[in-house]
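re: ur question from yesterday

yeah so i grabbed the chain u mentioned. its 184 aa long if i counted rite. heres the sequnce exactly as i have it in my notes:
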Amino acid sequence: MVMKPEPVYKAIGKLNPNKETRIILMCPTGETLNQKKAKELSECENIIVICGHYEGVDERIVKNLVTDEISIGDYVLTGGELPAMVLIDCIARMIPGVVKEEESYIRDSFYEGLLDYPSYTRPEKFKDESVPDVLKSGHHEQINLWRRKESLKRTFFKRPELLAGAKLKTEDKKLITEIITGTI
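ran it thru and got these structure tokens back, copy pasting raw so excuse formatting
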């Protein structure tokens, strides 16, 4: 089943897009969604998302309307509705006011090209494992340093390819050397 061009053209025409409107087609052949793309799209004034189903949409829609083709990964779903929800959630959380504090999303995984640090909550001790002492210390500078080290360590061991594109500071490179040599 391929979506016919006429209904899609009519629907988009009713939305009255302007030259700056991004018309996104969710499809497996598109650019893979990442944090950089989501950040770019979060700065757009108007976005229209087209979701194909089964075989997608007529190619004339792609050639004449679509500004961006986006995929959420190397697999195929029955339709673009779930990928569209993923895209919308990813973009929306960077719009001021959606997430209460900007700090909440700029420290998340991938925002600076690294994985997020581990999170802990109560109880303080669970199954013979405790929350790290530094997190209970109240010393914000030490807590931030611990978080950065853990973020770098987690990225190095779980997704080392991310380090090539990450925004690394001079101190980060030193910490990575410590991670590699096992001194952390």
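noticed a couple things. Strands lie at 22-32, 47-51, 68-71, 125-126, 129-130. also Helices lie at 5-14, 35-42, 59-64, 81-92, 102-106, 133-136, 140-158, 170-181.
anyway ttyl
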